[in-house]
User: Fold this.
Amino acid sequence: MSRYAVRVREWSVAGLGAGLLAVSASYFAVDGSVATSEYVRFAIPIALSLFVVALGLWLRAAELPADLVCVVFLWSFTGSVVMGLLTGWISLLQSFEGRPMLQPASIVLTKVALGALGGGLLGAYYTRLQQRTDELAEQRNRLDEFASIVSHDLRNPMNVAQGHLELARETGEDRHFEAVEDAHGRMERLVDEVLALSRRGEMVDDVTPVNLRVVAEEAWDTVETPGMDLRVETDRRVVSDDRRLRALFENLFRNAVDHGGETVTVGATDEGFYVADDGPGIPPEDRELVFEGGYSTHPDGTGFGLAIVRRIAEAHDWQIRVTEGDSGGAHFEFVGVDRE
Assistant:
């Protein structure tokens, strides 16, 4: 979706209110002989229209996603249409009784504006309820992931450590102590990544223009990449939380290290940026599964690195495309990225 389309959706409710306000106020400009009583009558639809505009501005200030604002607009528009049809039906019934069919414009506009405001408020309540439901579902999914880690992923290295510890007591061989140390290292990494996964799902607040080259190189320095090279082919500045962006690069770099390859490349695209490696790549049937927590094709992998990447991207409202790179390796492209 283009930025223009997003902007239209974000301001749709306020635009509907502004349209109703313009129609109501136009009667004063068109007819200069409006009676004083009509000024009072037209003040009601004008006030209701202003409330619809205020509702649209509140939705914009609350940073409600554009799709949800569009839902509120549909509710509001439907409410105004229903009240307009109801007014027409009442007028038709009045004509059957020999009464004037046409109602004063102020009454018609009042009913339409009331329908728009009522529908908008119902839509706002519905979207907030839906948003809360989605948040609860997301929290439940996280709890399921954590339960899986506690019941399976952490238990495996604990069992390994316990087994080698018993063998070390019997034999006193150093290799068993090394196995215990490796198992504890894996458990520590699992705990760290689970904590990161729980935090990365939050919305980002502190976004500033950051240089992709600088953040990527800082992330590279924090990851053990024996025998591998980093190539950054862009100096683009993107709007992001630099701490979260660094964590995104770190997890992508670790993924490249775990799956082999010699070079990792960071570059820019028209819609964002990409990270590619020259390793074995990701089969098409696994390109959606790799972002699920706990899924890993590497025997020593935790399966949470790319899940963290997905959470960070979602927090920035970015989309991820996984394809095959020019060298046959994995190619992660991030789109919808704002730049300076």
About this structure: Residues 209 and 239 are 4 Å apart (CA to CA). The mean pLDDT is 80. The longest helix spans residues 105-153. The two ends are 19 Å apart (CA to CA).
